[in-house]
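Chain A, query sequence.
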Amino acid sequence: MPMQDPVIDLDNTIATAYMLVAQIGAAPPIIQGRYELRRTLGRGANGLVCEALDRHLQRYVALKLVPLRDARTATNAAREAQTLAQFDHANIVRIHDVGQASDISGLRVDLVYVVMELLKGANLRHWASEQRAQRAILDVFLAAGEGLAAAHEQGFVHGDFKPENVVIDERGRVRVVDFGLARWGGDEMAQAGTFEVNRTPTQGPRGTPGYIAPEVFLAKGDARSDQYAFAVSLWELLLGRMPFERPGEVSAPDLERSAASLPAPVVRALQRATAADPVARFPSMR
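Chain A, predicted structure.
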């Protein structure tokens, strides 16, 4: 029988808690007696993001909930969040707190939670759906690229960059969110830029199909894998389609069509950043 995904279990647990609130007036689901869950904002390969009320500070926050698959999950998630919390960059979502919990309002569940600023705005895909000018799209990606570059220089790899993981807030600020697939490797990672690929029991590497770099399917990856996903995302939003059907396979006719509507330097940059061989890509986001 297929293994039950712990993210699905967590989602069902929280949905049950929400249902009890609506049907019998039960108290809202709460974590550690402090973070009161209000609604689920999104679901990903490795966890959920909920809007929550921080009862201590009386402010709304985004709460990422990552099920504990094993002890290593807790160690990695906590270390990533603690380090990111000390990393203040204008183009990366800010982290306020991190912890571990074993229940949600009495319902048994083992998880790591990461408390982040609650961004009010639209993700990049929704933002771009309003027929944005080419220059505006490029400017947003330049800002998101600054965030990725800064993270890479601190030893972080995002691991799931895509339009949905970039938010343009109400003030027009660009933030990269959800470093949930990042792997922290300390000095070794900062120097070598490598990370271990996390796989599901049945679906291969975690990430979003279409944005996963070819080397990730071989259980290898580094900051250049983020570069690949970044370029695929930019190509898609500039041209309204993915650059290729299979990773790393860009057809000559597609490049010619692109050259007709995009500046030649942009086409060359996208072509290089989406090369199947990571060695052929740019050495860094910078």
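Confidence is low (pLDDT under 50) at residues 183-204. Helices lie at 6-24, 71-85, 124-128, 134-153, 186-192, 223-239, 252-261, 264-273.
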